[in-house]
Automatic annotation (TrEMBL):
Origin: domain of life: Bacteria
Organism: Pontiella sulfatireligans
Listed InterPro entries: Gfo/Idh/MocA-like_OxRdtase_N, Gfo/Idh/MocA_oxidrdct_glycsds, NAD(P)-bd_dom_sf, TAT_signal
Protein name: Scyllo-inositol 2-dehydrogenase (NAD(+))
Any one Gene Ontology molecular-function term assigned to this protein's record: nucleotide binding
Gfo/Idh/MocA-like oxidoreductase N-terminal domain span: 48-170
């Protein structure tokens, strides 16, 4: 049974830790801010964080949320508290914070003392942790991608409205000067008539290297002694025999637990074009190339074409090409390059990831990298004509601090679930194409595939194990 604790933000922040916990002396885990440059704020002026997931990406997320002293961890939850997988930094910085192995127990015992939670766990457990906290009135920061399935994102978008809490997905570039610049360029008309977008990512995850490829689930191994509960790690998904390829860091490769390269880096590469060009949901998803395709792990290389409908005048239908792995870089037309004194043409460096936007007019292209990278116009002579739109102010807050300040009522987040949920659904649709390896037609209005029952089942994903089924009925 999920216990509902509905406290207003002001009530929660107003209560001092001493009054809440009945201490005459505030305990160390509520007062210490271990970083030397981290100002100490009184309990009435800060957010108390319950941190679900302490290692991996949390090694960066938790410091980003607490950097300015407006938030402090009051509870840590992880199924494995070994100092491997980057956990040591957080555990050493906050040694007195109580530790839990089950977020349900943490929220049950310390719910009254927690204002917001960070969810930095494997993709397949983002949803259950997030909606449990939301149902208790807690603000939630969830690492990208938001969810493992299309339906889970749909539920979290409804939950954001129902529980009226502050939300943020951890695609850090969405709170950056690069994002502000992209919006300015759109508002200045520089993004009009974009009809083709090419997105790419070089191979950088273990399953995108031939020598590490597998096509069957790995055999059972003895779990490390530090792993508290393998069933808890598996969450709502099927419990497979433990193998070190899953935990601590290899789970992203598996369809059952992760979202592959598209679900991972797509959040940093196509987030600007999806949000600011209002792409919405696609009508067609076609896997053009899936090297070493199988239904256990994601492809060695993946090329997928998406078609998005027209959104209004000067925003025509768009073809988005996603390429990850081999042959991922787009072809850059020499007419957009920069002429050199020797008569040659300089082509820009593609880097390890990015997007290239093509306009119907063919007068220039827009190129940007990933995360918070700024956009550039080619040829550069065209960019010089629009320098006012290319210069963007630095945001007042970082991605992490904007979430904390939004929890305190001082600003709004840039990647709430109403924005990041639909982006994640696009990623989920691409993942389904990678799993089935068939062309798919999708109805954005009804949010169903057309003529493919197997694909529609995958929108929901596997039936959750009984102890987790209740979470899918909360919103």
């Amino acid at each position: 049974m999920i216990k509902g604790h509905h406290f207003s933000r002001r009530d929660s922040i107003r209560k001092s830790a001493a009054a809440t916990l009945g201490f005459s002396i505030i305990p160390a885990y509520l007062t210490s801010a271990r970083a030397e440059n981290n100002p100490r704020l009184p309990p009435s002026r800060r957010i108390n964080l319950g941190c679900i997931g302490v290692g991996g990406r949390a090694a960066g997320v938790i410091p980003s949320l607490t950097r300015d002293g407006a938030a402090v961890p009051v509870a840590f939850c992880d199924v494995d508290f070994s100092t491997s997988n980057k956990r040591a930094e957080n555990l050493e910085s906050w040694p007195d914070v109580p530790r839990f192995n089950d977020f349900r127990v943490m929220l049950d015992k310390m719910g009254n003392d927690i204002d917001a939670v960070s969810v930095v766990t494997p993709d397949h457990t983002h949803f259950t942790a997030a909606i449990h906290a939301m149902s208790m009135g807690k603000h939630v920061y969830v690492e990208k991608p938001l969810t493992h399935t299309f339906q889970e994102s749909e539920i979290l978008m409804r939950a954001e409205k129902k529980f009226k809490v502050v939300t943020q997905m951890g695609n850090q570039g969405h709170t950056s000067s690069g994002a502000a610049q992209f919006r300015q360029m759109r508002d200045a008309g520089l993004m009009e008539d974009v009809y083709k977008i090419e997105a790419w990512k070089d191979p950088s995850l273990w399953f995108m290297k031939k020598k590490h490829r597998i096509s069957a689930y790995p055999p059972e191994e003895r779990p490390p002694e530090s792993l508290h509960d393998w069933n808890q790690w598996c969450g709502p998904q099927e419990v497979m025999p433990f193998n070190s390829k899953y935990h601590p860091g290899g789970w992203r490769a598996f369809h059952k637990y992760g979202c592959g390269m598209f679900g991972d880096w797509g959040c940093h590469i196509i987030d600007f074009v999806h949000d600011y060009l209002k792409l919405g949901l696609p009508t067609e998803i076609s896997p053009l190339r899936l090297d070493d395709y199988n239904q256990v792990i994601f492809p060695l290389s993946s090329h997928i074409r998406f078609r998005f409908p027209e959104r209004g005048p000067r925003f025509p239908s768009v073809e988005l090409m996603w390429r990850a792995g081999a042959d991922c870089n787009p072809v850059f037309d020499a007419k957009y390059g920069d002429p050199q004194e020797d008569g040659s043409v300089r082509i820009p460096d593609f880097g390890n990831a990015g997007t290239l936007l093509h306009r119907k007019q063919g007068d220039y292209v827009i190129m940007r990298g990933h995360h918070g990278d700024a956009s550039r116009i080619y040829p550069r002579v065209k960019m010089m004509e629009h320098m006012d739109a290319m210069k963007a102010p630095k945001p007042e807050y970082s991605h992490g601090t904007s979430f904390i300040q939004a929890c305190m009522g001082n600003t709004t987040t840039t990647s709430p679930f109403s924005v990041s949920g639909e982006l994640t659904q696009v990623l989920n649709l691409g993942m389904i194409a990678e799993y089935l390896n068939v062309d798919l037609k999708f109805d954005p209005e009804n949010k169903q595939f057309v003529g493919n029952d197997e694909a529609n089942v995958l929108l929901k994903g596997a039936t959750p194990r009984p102890e987790w089924a209740q979470y899918y009925k909360l919103a």
